[in-house]
Amino acid sequence: MNPETWAAVDRYLTDLFEPSDAVLAAALAASTAAGLPSINVSPAQGKLLQLLARIQRARNILEIGTLGGYSAIWLARALPVDGRLITLEFDSKHAEVARANIARAGLGDVVELRVGRALDTLPQLAAEGRGPFDLIFIDADKPSTADYFAWSLKLSRPGSLIMVDNVVRNGAVVDAASDDPRVQGMRHFFDALAAEKRVDAAVVQTVGSKGYDGFALARVRESDK
Q1: Which of 53, 71, 124, 220 has the smallest C-beta neighbourhood within 10 Å, fewest atoms?
Q2: Pairing of strands 84-89, 60-64
Q3: Interatomic CA distance for residues 193 and 201, integer angstroms
Q4: pLDDT score, position 224
Q5: Is 186 domain-assigned?
Q6: How far is CA 10 from each of CA 43, 60, 132, 163, 213, rounded to the nearest angstrom?
């Protein structure tokens, strides 16, 4: 098995289960034209996020890491008519592209995009009483993932679902001696996740058009568990 096979299978499954969508295609095209890095979730991953949000019956979603707004569109489409999504983005250029993509999707009244360092914005959300969130998706700078997870717990409730992307790093996460801060960030996050008694968690390895990686899922336990 090789990356070419993974990508071919991804294309086959995407054609079956995530048919072409003009709004999502336009969001990717606009992101590429603006020079944003091609690190958005794949269509299959976007569909998974949407299904998880629907399974959760999420009304209040938090996304940490907006990029061009592609995953935000997938998630926001899962919300009920009175649902809201807050997405956090550090880079003002990325935020500008994302706002346009979200508006084109007709979701400007559903999605609130906040620009700034997430470790500054998250305490503001807590102070404003904007939680608890039913679903939180973490897909931002990897060295800060453990901190984002800690804040996600503060902004959660029993039953909230926290999903963290890009946790396997092409298998490099097993290398304790790695000098890559993204790998060490994920190892630090895994240590925190494994030690956290308030959640039930699982990590899933993935292959596909985005290569070899994986995601973590953590569900906040009921208070009496």
Answers
A1: 124
A2: parallel
A3: 7
A4: 54
A5: yes
A6: 9, 30, 34, 21, 14
pLDDT of residue 225: 46
Q: Which two tokens stand for residue 70?
A: 């592609």
In a domain, 225, yes or no: no
Q: What is the pLDDT of residue 191?
A: 98
Residues of the chain with pLDDT under 70: 1, 224-225
Assess if residue 21 is contained within a domain: yes
Torsion of CA 26, 29, 31, 35, to 10 degrees: -160
* Enclosing domain of residue 162: 3-220
Distances (CA, A) of 129 to 58, 122, 137, 146, 199: 17, 11, 19, 22, 22
Q: Counting beta carbons within 10 angstroms of the beta carbon of residue 2, is it exposed (0 to 12), middle (13 to 18) or buried (19 or more)? A: exposed
Residue 19 pLDDT: 84
- Which residues neighbour 103 within 8 Å (Cβ) at sequence distance 6 or greater? none
The total number of structural domains that make up the chain: 1
Which CATH number characterizes residue 162's domain? 3.40.50.150
Whether the bond between 3 and the residue before it is cis, its omega within 30 degrees of 0, is no
pTM for the whole structure: 0.95
Q: Which two tokens stand for residue 80?
A: 């009920």
Retrieve residue 197's tokens.
Answer: 């008694």
